[in-house]
């Protein structure tokens, strides 16, 4: 059952969080808004809708430039879906008009956010040949500024339908361009755990490819193959390469293997490795059991801090508290 109501959005930024972003006290931030713009959250906390946050940051000169971010690794269970939906909900809170593009036939992002498609609902497999005519009518609203194009098992047929190299180049790109043309600035793609045709098409569309890794050898091999495949695809299609970023997930500082793996990552991939790891936490599974992400709660946690840092880095939100 979908417990979400459009008039009661889950994903709001608190005045304290906005204050931390721009280097001001939360109470001072609260006084910047009209009473009707402040939404009570309980515990003397006040929330701000994505539209209100967007207006505030735009007045500070922040540019909501569009970005397509694809999460890719052929290794499963490494955090692609969690990273996609968690980053999407945080980007929404910061005022980005956000759409999740679920390409995984397992529909993990769609299930996690309680937006599985019905039998007659179009998915990417149905719309890629007619993005202008079908994209906007196919996405599902989660709340203001947050949407998803859900997935189902039929997306497994994409490899057969995208045989033509021209189609591979344009399929995901066409849908993303259609979303951007209608005001979306953040498109986050949850890719299947493979290097199949759907992933090739996602690479052709991406501005940034984020490769989640864990400390095991399989995810490192997946990282190596993914980086090689990106270079090969961009050369084949004559495309500029996307920005590649490596995200260490499920990091446990108590494990010697994790620290060794992180050092190896930095040695091998240098500045491609994101500056902050995602620490292991039970908060993720608890949130997913409620069909939401950790950003539906305003309780402080390491998990929220880690993904907040990730989103700020990817979407250029760092340094807003400095003199502009």
Describe this structure in words.
This protein has 324 residues and is an alpha/beta fold. It has a single domain (50-314), classed as 3-Layer(aba) Sandwich (Rossmann fold), CATH 3.40.50. Helix content is 43%, strand content 14%. The protein has helices at residues 15-22, 26-30, 50-59, 80-93, 108-112, 124-127, 131-138, 158-161, 165-181, 197-205, 217-237, 256-269, 283-289, 302-314; strands at 13-14, 39-42, 45-48, 67-71, 98-102, 140-143, 146-149, 186-190, 208-213, 243-248. The protein has a seven-stranded mixed sheet with strand order 6-7-5-8-4-9-10, with helices on both faces. A hairpin with a 2-residue loop joins β6 and β7 (146-149). α7 (131-138) packs across α9 and α9 packs across α10. The radius of gyration is 19 Å and the shape is globular. The model is unreliable at 1-6 (pLDDT under 50).
What is the radius of gyration computed over CA atoms, rounded to a whole number of angstroms? 19 Å
Structural class: alpha/beta
- Low-confidence segments: 1-6
Query: What percent of residues are in strands?
Result: 5-15%
The SSE string, one letter per element, is EHHEEHEHEHHHEEHHEHEHEHHH
CATH arch. level architecture: 3-Layer(aba) Sandwich
Into how many domains do the coordinates divide?
A: 1
Strand order of the largest sheet: 6-7-5-8-4-9-10
The CATH class assignment is Alpha Beta
Q: How many DSSP-defined strands?
A: 10
Mean pLDDT, to the nearest integer, reads: 92
Tally the helices: 14
**The CATH topology is what?**
Rossmann fold
Sheet having the most strands: 7 strands, mixed
Which range best describes the helical content: under 10%, 10-25%, 25-40%, 40-55%, 55-70% or over 70%? Answer: 40-55%
Question: Superfamily at the CATH H level?
Answer: P-loop containing nucleotide triphosphate hydrolases
